[in-house]
Amino acid sequence: MIALVTGGYGFIGNQIAELISPEYAEVRILDNLSNVARVVRLPNVRLIKTDIRDIGATNEAFDDVDVVFHTAAQVDVVASTREPFVDMDNNVKGTLSVCEAARRNDVSKLVYSSSAAVYGNAASFPIDEAQPIRPLSPYAVSKHCGELYMAAYHNLYGLSTLSLRYFNVYGPYQRPENAYSGVISTFFYNATRNAPLQIHGDGNQTRDFVYVTDVANANLLAASSDAANAVVNIGSGRETSINELAMMIKKMALSDSSIAHGAPRISDGRRSLADIRNAKRIINYEPKIRIDGGLAKLRQFFGDTR
Ligand SMILES: NC(=O)c1ccc[n+]([C@@H]2O[C@H](COP(=O)([O-])OP(=O)(O)OC[C@H]3O[C@@H](n4cnc5c(N)ncnc54)[C@H](O)[C@@H]3O)[C@@H](O)[C@H]2O)c1
């Protein structure tokens, strides 16, 4: 069996490629190298340097592929507000191209990386998949658009698709500027230098931080599940405030950093918490890494790389 990971050198894609490599004879990574987090070096993993918007090249790369994990995207929320057409071009056209190549090559499963950004500021918690779509950025629109293509290709052609809505993913090789969980890398960076940990607003805003290996595992489970044409939340099912996060990281890094509160950012939601019961029911997903364990792993990673 052959698997293909679009964006397989990215923050999440590299973990998927590594996790699935023992399960498949060959893992193809399709990446345009625009935002490489880590190069995966394994005997059965190979790079095809291509842009997913190039339908001809993407179609060729999908030859004989059984399962596709589609992670490639423009992921910068702020950039999407500055350059909405760039975001639309990459995420909408790119995802359509992936759907077309999957259909033409009779792919048996297409797992799409969507985002909890589609919920915007949710009205009730925990957030389940039935909550209304309230995009607050062009990025959120483009991610939802991808979900709609997944549904359309299922309904039209019987393509077996699943959309996973990730919450705030964190882990090794994540860049500090990442809108989802870059705060964790930034806090670690500052804590190890005893520099202040800067919090926007009162710090009581919460996020559902999910460790990147749990997200990779959710992809593996989705690929082997019989379920199709569904959207599934992938989070930890727990909420952590930014104040708690700062305290945990400060303690772990044995840091003397002060914790400073600045002006709130208007774009920041007050709460985020995933309802993950659907994920358990549909793909048997259960997060394995709690926030304290995930932060401990990260501290070790930063210790090894800095
Ligand atoms: N990181 C998070 O917390 C988070 C949360 C929700 C959803 N997501 C979704 O998960 C997916 C992966 O996110 P990430 O954080 O790993 O991003 P990333 O930027 O680290 O990885 C994306 C990868 O795709 C590649 N790429 C981008 N555009 C491409 C194109 N047109 N053709 C080929 N390759 C292209 C980049 O080079 C990179 O290797 C994205 O679809 C994102 O929307 C991420």
Topology (elements, then pairings):
Blueprint: E1 2-6, H1 13-20, E2 26-31, E3 45-49, H2 55-61, E4 67-70, H3 77-82, H4 84-104, E5 109-115, H5 138-157, E6 161-166, E7 168-170, H6 182-192, E8 197-200, E9 206-207, E10 209-211, H7 212-224, E11 230-234, E12 240-241, H8 242-252, E13 259-262, H9 277-283, H10 291-305
Parallel strand pairs: 1-2, 1-4, 2-3, 4-5, 5-6, 6-11, 7-10, 8-13
Antiparallel strand pairs: 9-12
Helix pairs in contact: 1-7, 2-4, 4-5, 6-8
**Helix and strand pattern:** EHEEHEHHEHEEHEEEHEEHEHH
Task: Pick out the low-confidence regions.
Answer: none
Query: How would you characterize the largest beta sheet?
Result: 7 strands, parallel
- Average pLDDT across residues? 95
Number of spatially distinct domains: 2
Report the sheet-strand fraction. Answer: 15-25%
Ligand species = nicotinamide-adenine-dinucleotide
Number of helices: 10
Strand order in space, largest sheet? 3-2-1-4-5-6-11
Question: Which fold name is given in CATH as the topology of the largest domain?
Answer: Rossmann fold
* Rg from alpha-carbon coordinates: 19 Å
CATH class of the largest domain, please?
Alpha Beta
CATH architecture of the largest domain: 3-Layer(aba) Sandwich
Estimate percent helicity: 25-40%
End-to-end C-alpha gap:
38 Å
Please state the oligomeric state of the protein chains shown. single chain
Rough outline:
globular
Number of DSSP-assigned strands: 13
- Backbone structural class: alpha/beta
Specify the CATH homologous superfamily of the largest domain: NAD(P)-binding Rossmann-like Domain
